[in-house]
Amino acid sequence: MTRPQIYLFGDSITEESFDVGGWGASLANHFSRTADVVLRGYSGYNTRWALKVLDRVFPESQGRDGGTETAPIALTVFFGANDACLPNRCSAYQHVPLHEYKENIRSTVSFFKKRWPTAKVILITPPPIDEYARLRYPFENNPEGLPERTNEAAGEYAKACIAVATECHIPFIDLWTKMQQFPDWKKVYL
Q: Cα–Cα–Cα angle for 123, 52, 116, nearest 5°?
């Protein structure tokens, strides 16, 4: 009997989710006796790049007995932090316009629903951005000294993610809103 699987698909937030105390590690611990949590996180990726690798990351395969593969019970899709980079700043190469981001998320959901109709697809919004911390500890060479991401832009992508989830009648986790509801969220979560 094959153990049920849960796939985590996303950018570096997903890739690093198995670090000590990470959300992926917590899921794996929670489901340790009942399901395998499978990591498919790609640092730096946006939805445009994710679409290009979907078939390779999630190939159609045959089961051991020649039958079809077992569908995962659930998948998370967690993109948007890189898509929301500002188009005229140092991380512009990662930027995806909002309308394209929405279409890319729709296409990703459609891919999974066609591949595994019984799997529950869950969208996760991009998290909020602490602009001050990003300037203080930049990931890119930033000669202008301007934030390459803003919380406002991340919020627009979060709203777009929620809109797609609503259109597709699938669940979502509004991380952007939930994290900011906690006092000192910048110190606690980012």
A: 50
- Quote the distance between the C-alpha of residue 9 and its chain's center: 6
CATH number of 5-189: 3.40.50.1110
Q: CA 131, CA 56: separation in Å to the nearest integer?
A: 35
107 is catalytic: no
**Cα 94 to Cα 83: distance, rounded to the nearest angstrom:** 6
Q: Which neighbouring-strand residues pair with 76?
A: 8, 122
Options 12, 17, 26, 91, the catalytic residue: 12
Q: Structure tokens of 119? A: 């799997």
pLDDT tens-digit series, residues 68-118:
578 999 999 999 999 999 998 878 899 999 999 999 999 999 999 999 999
Helices 98-115 and 151-168 meet at what angle, rounded to 10? 40
Residue 11 makes CB contacts below 8 A (sequence gap 6+) with 41, 42, 43, 44, 45, 46, 50, 78, 79, 81, 82
Residues 39, 43, 46, 48, CA torsion sign: negative
- The structure's pTM equals 0.91
